[in-house]
Amino acid sequence: MAKICIAATGDSFITQRLPRESMEIRDLHALFHRFDARFTNLETTIHDFEVPASAVSGGTWAAARPAVLEDLCWLGFNMVAWANNHTLDWTHEGLLQTYGHLDRLGLLHAGVGRNLAEASMPRYLDTAHGRIALIGVNSTLQDWQVAGEQRPDVRGRPGVNPLRFQAIHRLSAADLERLRLIVGQTEINAKRVLSEKEGFSPRSEVDLCVGNLCFEEGLPGTITKMNQEDAQRVGRAIHEARRQADVVLVSHHAHEMKGTDKAQPADFIREFARYCIDAGASAYMGHGPHILRGIEIYQDRPIFYSLGNFIFQNETVERQPAELYRLYGLTPEHSPSDAFDAREQVSQRGLWADPHVFESVIAAMEIEDGMCRSVHLYPVTLGYGLKRSQRGRPRLSVTEDGSRILHRLRLLSQVFGTELQVDSQGIGRIVLG
Predict the structure, then answer these.
(1) Residue 252 maps to a domain
(2) Same domain, yes or no, for 104 and 202?
(3) Checking DSSP bridges between strand 37-42 and strand 283-287, what pairing results, if any?
(4) Do residue 130 and residue 57 come from a single domain?
(5) Residue 159 falls within a domain, yes or no?
(6) Residues 214, 145: one domain?
(7) Whole-structure pTM over 0.90, yes or no?
(8) CA nearest neighbour of 161 among 177, 145, 181
(9) pLDDT, tens only, 219-243
(10) Domain hosting residue 214, numbered range
(11) How many domains does the chain have?
(12) Exposure check for the chain: N or C terminus, fewer CB within 10 A?
């Protein structure tokens, strides 16, 4: 098999047109077109606001006009995943509109479908040097966002390909008994107890459940475990893709962290990433927390726990529903800018104040005979500190900013035993095999 070159980015929360005449954008255009496949996670819905908004969102009700897809295609992207916490911000109608616009442009997309079978299937990109499969998965979700399985007598439900997980909080025997007594003195668990008694909810196998919180005896702390049914469904898709393609990529959107450190993936994410590689994936591409996470080399294949943001324009969405205004005490007379201003004032230490949110990398992989031979990392900045109208747009950075980004990524990756080098041109490199 010939060498296949793939460029992968993290989240593209795009809401503005890309200025194609900009030198920074043209530099990216030139870089991407050196690769056979160019991937991003599309973290917005695509429509002309002719659809209703959901009652809840992934934080911002993400939406953009269809023309932004044309800009992403021009930039070079030819494969996207879009299973994430914003996929259903504008109900199932918004999902179906997005699906149609992606199909209209002929842009390969994975992770979302009109039923579970469609959402979980691999999608294939044929290139001059080989065939690439893409599987999209999402963990940061609510139950109603999961794609529904088709039955002979019931239509499937549009939604995302899920990887659910269970969080288990461990306590000492004495603390667990103390908690049981406290719960028993209140009605906090009455709904769950009655639901189990009447057969609407299965009884849990853990020691104590309080609502959706699960507790068991053990060394104090919290662990998370991936849902085995969901993981096995993804595993079957990987096995299928291995027989139909030369390269298999798994895209996984997950905000979940270990403790309060966003840079550290939750236990189930590490479990799932290795599961994918063991099943035959050529690479695992994570995104979601809006910052970089470390890189692990497992079985000589890369696990990117988070590639951060590639485009982050969530404060320039053209319209927002009443729910966002109400959250900040605003009225129908207020505009989206008023709502975003109010949110910034409330969250002085939020995403917009964190410089790491505006730093990421483009990961370039060289894959030959099914194995990844090397990874190159091109540092990217997104205009931290600029005005809202300019912030969130990517540009390559091999100066002092680029050195800082790669130094931080090196430290994050050392936790996983990965050695990242930086060459004389300011580009990171990991040699495999």
Answers:
(1) yes
(2) no
(3) unpaired
(4) yes
(5) no
(6) no
(7) yes
(8) 145
(9) 999 999 999 999 999 999 999 999 9
(10) 165-224
(11) 2
(12) C
Question: Which amino acid is residue 187, in one-letter code?
Answer: E
Condensed to tens digits (0 to 9), the pLDDT of residues 127-167 reads 999 999 999 999 999 999 999 999 999 999 999 999 999 99
Residue 312's identity, in one-letter code, is F
> Are 175 and 129 in the same domain?
no
User: 369 with 403, same domain?
Assistant: yes
State the SS3 of the chain.
CCCEEEEEEEEEECCCCCCCCCHHHHHHHHHHCCCCEEEEEECCEECCCCCCCCCCCCCCCCEECCHHHHHHHHHCCCEEECCCCCCCCCHHHHHHHHHHHHHHHCCEEECEECCHHHHHCCEEEEECCEEEEEEEEECCCCHHHECECCCCCCCCECEECECCEEEEEEECHHHHHHHHHHHHCCCCCHHHHHHHHCCCCCCCCCCEEECCEEEEECCCEEEEEECHHHHHHHHHHHHHHHHHCCEEEEEEECCCEECCEEEEECHHHHHHHHHHHHHCCCEEEEECCCCECCEEEECCEEEECCECEEEECCCCCCCCCHHHHHHCCCCCCCCHHHHHHHHHHHCCCCHHHCHHHHEEEEEEEEEECCEEEEEEEEEEECCCCCCCCCCCCCEECCCHHHHHHHHHHHHHHHCCCCCCEECCCCCEEEECC
CATH code where residue 22 lies? 3.60.21
